[in-house]
Design goal:
By secondary structure, the protein is α+β, with helices and mostly antiparallel strands. About 40% of the residues lie in helices and about 25% in strands. Strands 1, 3, 4, 5, 6, 7, 8, 10 and 11 form a 9-stranded mixed sheet that branches. It has a two-stranded antiparallel sheet with strand order 2-9. A hairpin with a 5-residue loop joins strand 3 (about 95-105) and strand 4. The protein is elongated.
Length: about 260
């Protein structure tokens, strides 16, 4: 009881200095908690969005596929094996076919990544239902969807028709018109910027690569975690490594701010 009385007298006796200390300490603790909460919230949202839009619950990559080397795309596709074909039919995995291409909006040229997806898939959040729309009689345009970043960079909107050029498996260049049937909005730049999506069956036909794919995205309902001949299994933790490492670096940087504030 005596200690409490002495502490109270010291606090009251210090006057304004006491209140300054209280305010400064409260501000410092608030800033530390707020900053840490922002980083944790950002990390959680980024993980959720990437899992929903891009990585799913894991992926299978064709053995030659390297997402950091676009030159590997020419050889990064293969026939869909029976195990993955059955899983695709069950709706627990979805195939994606990738190739380099160019788009010519308003006569300008821009490199991009052309992706073929299943319009009816439910594994990732990319809205592909519009890819089932058929061109009017006499029309040759291929239905395509893009993200808002791609639409802004190319100055495209729903209903616009533009030309794309790609190279098939034999090295022959070809070109066709595509019609933008939908523009989606998402928080994952890696599936939006510089990318266009069309029906995978159409892309297989364009590339002369029937029943082939570059990678498969696995849903949470799939029970697959082993390598398949010619395909490498990539678990979710591996696919999220870059994001998690970036958040760790930001937390380390935040620790210096906490130290300065405490001083």
């Amino acid at each position: 009881m005596l200690a409490i009385k002495l502490a109270y007298r010291n606090l009251v006796g210090a006057g304004l200095r006491t209140w300054l200390n209280v305010i400064v300490l409260a501000f410092v603790l608030f800033m530390i908690i707020w900053h840490y909460g922002i980083l944790d919230g950002w990390n959680e949202q980024a993980n959720r969005d990437m899992q929903a839009w891009e990585v799913g619950n894991g992926q299978y990559w064709q053995e030659n596929y390297d997402p950091y080397d676009f030159f590997t795309l020419e050889d990064s596709h293969a026939k869909i094996p029976d195990a993955l074909q059955n899983a695709t039919t069950e709706g627990v995995v979805t195939p994606i076919l990738l190739t380099q291409a160019s788009v010519y909006p308003d006569g300008r040229i821009q490199g991009m990544l052309l992706k073929g997806i299943d319009p009816d898939q439910k594994v990732i959040a990319i809205p592909g239902a519009e890819l089932n729309i058929e061109s009017p009689a006499g029309g040759q345009e291929i239905p395509a969807i893009i993200g808002k970043r791609m639409a802004k960079n190319c100055k495209l909107k729903v209903g616009d028709v533009t030309i794309i050029r790609w190279r098939d498996v034999n090295g022959t260049f070809d070109a066709l018109e595509v019609k933008i049937v939908d523009i989606f909005d998402c928080n994952v730049p890696s599936i939006d910027g510089g990318q266009m999506y069309i029906n995978i069956n159409k892309l297989q036909e364009m590339m002369q690569a029937p029943n082939e794919a570059t990678l498969f995205v696995i849903s949470e309902d799939a029970e697959m975690s082993e390598d398949i001949s010619g395909w490498e299994y990539k678990e979710l933790d591996l696919l999220m490594t870059e994001m998690n490492e970036m958040m760790k670096m930001k937390k380390v940087g935040g620790s210096f701010i906490y130290f300065i504030l405490m001083l």
